Amino acid sequence: MAHITGEEKGRRSVSGSVGVSYYRGRMRVATWNVNSVKQRIPRLLPWLDERRPDVVCLQETKLSDAAFDEVLGADLAERGYEVAHVGQGQWNGVALLSRVGLDDVQVGFDGMPGYPDPDTLEARAVSAVCGGLRIYSLYVPNGRTPDDDHYHYKLEWLESLARAVADPSTTLLCGDMNIAPADTDVFDPEAFVGHTHVTPPERAALARFESLGMRDVVRERWPSERVYTYWDYRAGMFHKDLGMRIDLILAGDQVAGRVQAAWVDRKARKGTKPSDHAPVVVDLDEAPDGDIGPVVPPPSNPAKPGATKVKLPQTPE
Fold it and tell me: For the Endonuclease/exonuclease/phosphatase domain, which residue ranges apply (predicted)?
């Protein structure tokens, strides 16, 4: 297994691989904010065995590169994955796992801003050519509150990313975008008034990728369905399906045309010690499980939108 890390390569460098591996046939791509990969190992490895994704984008690994390799390197190699990981200890952290090639690895992206100062680059982006496609694993800054410096950093970060995407048509942007694209992507728009993730500037920054020709393949396939990827840990939020859709896969035209299925693996959010996010899965060229719906399995008893008034944790009294 070729293990490429930010510590080895430097935050803005590109790996020195020779040639690019092109994958022929179907390809399953998934993205998952695991919210501490060490805590999620008992969930992650069985999920890899069950769903058998060819490329996996992970966010919030919360480990250094060395620690990631120590706790997962052997298990991932056994499953045939090459790994590119960019760690930051107990914060942030992104990874790419690929069984269809891992070429031209780039840590961060050209012009990526830092925080709290321009020279302090966080572990929020890694990309590589996998199966002939440029695939990004992204953990977009949260923004905190609309009047926080972190919010302006978020907008600058997204603007810089849009400028850095060299060939949108063969690119996949995968990850926790920390933006719900529309009101239909949150359980109750009124509950989010005054909060980040839903403000017009954030949504406009995300929509810029659409202007580049990139398509939100889950929403495109399921335009009017209730689809969420994140549910707060508080009791009942998941079971009532009071969530948000903030984990996205944006695909360039050439890639989006190959999509045969696009869905949220809600099963991975169930059970013992889950992440608060569920994986998003996209099947290219062939859907081994069929076109199985937007959320698998669907929630059994979701609350009706607006019927349950829930105050967000960060809502001021």
Answer: 30-277
How much of the chain exceeds pLDDT 90, in percent? 85
List the CATH number of the domain containing 82. 3.60.10.10
Indicate the pTM of the whole model.
Answer: 0.92
pLDDT tens, 259-303? 999 999 999 999 999 999 999 999 999 999 999 999 999 998 898
The answer to the question of residue 98 being in a domain is yes
110-163: per-residue pLDDT in tens?
999 999 998 899 999 999 999 999 999 999 999 999 999 999 999 999 999 999
Residue 29 lies in a domain: yes
Tokens of 141: 């800054």
By residue range, what is the domain housing residue 7?
3-17+24-296
Reply yes or no on whether the pLDDT at 79 is more than 60. yes
Does residue 126 fall inside a structural domain?
yes
Question: The sheet that has 280-284: what strands, in order across it?
Answer: 3-5, 82-86, 94-98, 55-59, 27-33, 280-284, 259-265, 295-296
Q: How many domains does the chain have?
A: 1
What value does the CA radius of gyration of the chain take, rounded to a whole number of Å? 18
Of 24 and 88, which is predicted with more confidence?
Answer: 88
Tell me if 146 is assigned to some domain.
Answer: yes
Average pLDDT over all residues of the chain:
91
DSSP string, the chain: --EEEHHHH-TT-B----S-----S-EEEEEEE-SSHHHHHHHHHHHHHHH--SEEEEE---S-HHHHHHHHHHHHHHTT-EEEEE--TTS--EEEEESS--EEEEES-TT---SSSTT---S-EEEEEETTEEEEEEE-----STTSHHHHHHHHHHHHHHHH-S-GGGEEEEEE-S--SSGGGBS-GGGGTTSTTS-HHHHHHHHHHHHTT-EEHHHHHSTTS---SEE-SSTTTTTTT-EE--EEEEE-HHHHTTEEEEEEEGGGGSSSS--SB--EEEEES--TT-S--SEESPPSSPPPTTTS----TT---
